[in-house]
Amino acid sequence: MGMRKIKRLEDAYRFPGFRPLRTLKGVFGDPWVRVVVLRRQRKRTVCGTCGKVHSSFYDHKVRRVRDKSCGDLRIYLELEVRRVKCRHCGTVKRERLSFLAGNPRYTKRFAFYVGRQCRESSIKQVARELHLDWHTVKGLEKEYMREQLRRAGNPRPEVIGIDELSVRKGHNYRIVVSDLVRKRPIWFGGKDRSEASMDEFYRRLGPKQYRKIRLAVMDMWVPFRASTRKHAAQAAILFDKFHVLRHLSDALDEVRRSEYARLTSDRKRRFIKGQRYALLSRWANLSCRGRRALKLLFAANKRLNTAYLLKETFGQLWGYRAEGWAWRFFINWWESLKWQRLKPYEKFARMILRHWDGIAAYCQPQNKVSLGFVEGINNKLRVIQRRAYGLRNEEHLRLKVLTATLPVF
Hints:
Layout: H1 2-12, E1 18-25, E2 33-40, E3 45-46, E4 53-54, E5 59-70, E6 73-86, E7 91-94, H2 108-120, H3 123-130, H4 134-152, E8 159-168, E9 172-179, E10 184-189, H5 195-205, H6 207-210, E11 215-218, H7 222-231, E12 236-239, H8 241-262, H9 266-269, H10 276-280, H11 288-300, H12 302-314, H13 323-335, H14 343-354, H15 356-360, H16 372-387, H17 394-402
Parallel strand pairs: 2-6, 8-11, 11-12
Antiparallel strand pairs: 1-2, 3-4, 5-6, 6-7, 8-9, 9-10
Helix pairs in contact: 2-4, 3-4, 4-17, 5-7, 8-12, 8-14, 11-12
């Protein structure tokens, strides 16, 4: 039994240059704490700054380091940590131990465990569960996310998606750029959603990389388009389908409000009242109750019936593989607006005409990319913000954004 116990101890707590010697119980007056004493095997000392190897050391002290828990037991490692008077650095530096985190009071595997927990829970919950300070958990999580970015490597995008993220009230935005092929955010920054902020992304990416971009997916915001044409002129610009359809939904909602204002009797208004979200939903996504309510509404109001049918059919535009057929569909859709007295729809059609090149680009076979990822990552980031009740630290938010879709290790 004794030999098997020692073997298990060596397997779990053997680190480079150290081996486990024994375990201690009842430390800190807590029965749920165990301390594993490590004995140094390596005589040489590595400078923690420059990495130069020294045969001697300046001084040393015994330190207790938190490691991953074993069941309900909190594990600490007791080891000797040296300082070395480095001739290359010209000063006294702490030695480098590869298994310790950036905060030397914790091991790397414990820091990565904390980082994995923070992907699903708030910092406050993780700190309470692991008996740690809130700021300590935040620092360990940031170290884990930086390691995720290091393992992911430098971005080399060919297809990018550009969108903005609201960071606080008062129209305070940051720009999020995603690689739509690898499905990961690659840049989060800027001071607003201006052209100058977008230029900052291309400067960070560098001329060698942004000249390889062949497609840029974005909304119809002019500064994004102008910056992309200035730096990546070879890239085709494609307007995001979901942003285009959002303008159409706004036009339908405007028709609904005008119809409600036009009617004077409560008997006729009752069909429209409370049906906003049903009107803005697709027919396929409605429940039986929602469909029955819309059928009653369409029977009572022919103009809303026509507006809803036009909204439902417009989505077919992204199903064409040839630009000529897509153009013919749009012209027929536009002509069906005649005599319908739907001014918001006519305004929407003129907007589509002005931005036709960016919409018709989806007909090209090489531009058939997933358009839902940009909006999906935005929803994911809003969930992260809501769970944390807002992230006020800009660097912490940047790391959260860039690692939102990276694999867990």
